[in-house]
Amino acid sequence: MINISNVGVKQTQFLQKAYKQKKLAHSYLFVDSDEERALNTAYWLACLFNCTGENKPDGTCQNCKQILSGNHPDVLLVQSDGKQTLGIDQIRPLKEELVKSPVESSRRFFFIKEAQKLTLSAANGLLNLLEEPVAPVVTILITNNSDQILPTIRSRTQIINFDNGKKRNGKTEILLENGFTQSEINELGNLEKWDQEIKYFYQEMLEHNSLALISAHKLSENAKLVSEQRYILIKLKLLAEQDLNDPLKLNLAAQMLKNLIEVDKMRLSNVNLRNSLDYLALRWK
């Protein structure tokens, strides 16, 4: 449910100033651990442009009601609908809308929720949209983790951070907190493939799937760099810590963390990654 009373205060002040000065950018990246607040702010901006009331946006005029109910022809939302990714098939219609002029407004608004779920092909498909668009349009990408957005996408947007440094939830910040140097993080590069393979390994262990041993071998063989080897173990720890918040997985997560402490001890004794991951897989066989 869109609620334009639950918005970023400083962010709306910044956007309102840009609106009054006619300096609104054509593309933004809203970074917020609370993605609903960021989405509400995006809708607030669309209402600001279209509101017919005195105190814009009032949220009660006919235009605002249309926008907030998702029925305005010039305001389009793309979201994953619970799927793991946002694919090119979901972005293609947006690109087709790009060439169309506004129907009832002076500007169109495209919102992409959970932009961190964009596949590589979908993200690349967005690049032309984020350049100087043909029709008057404002595109707003919403994410809870800017590190998962392609650098080429970030460079084409004006980034507005809602957390104001209060919550360090970006992947870079998490790795720094876990002892990685910036040069090691740069060395790791794109972690999307690693994240997927590590998550599969983790899930296979929790399911007592015999494929976990095969995944352990694959991970250890592909991790040539020390930074990659460290990342695998840190990511397993982060997945387990996340599952501590799930009552159904609490005991499993606690046991996994206990096993990972043993792996840390093994690594300090110069046990290689292959044997360390084998130990984990066999413990959960």
UniProtKB/TrEMBL annotation:
Pfam family, any one: DNA_pol3_delta2
Record field: transmembrane: none
Organism this protein belongs to: Lactobacillus acidophilus (strain ATCC 700396 / NCK56 / N2 / NCFM)
Ranges in coiled-coil conformation: none
Keywords in alphabetical order: Nucleotidyltransferase, Transferase
Keyword Transferase tagged: yes
Protein name: DNA polymerase III, delta subunit
Enzyme class: transferase
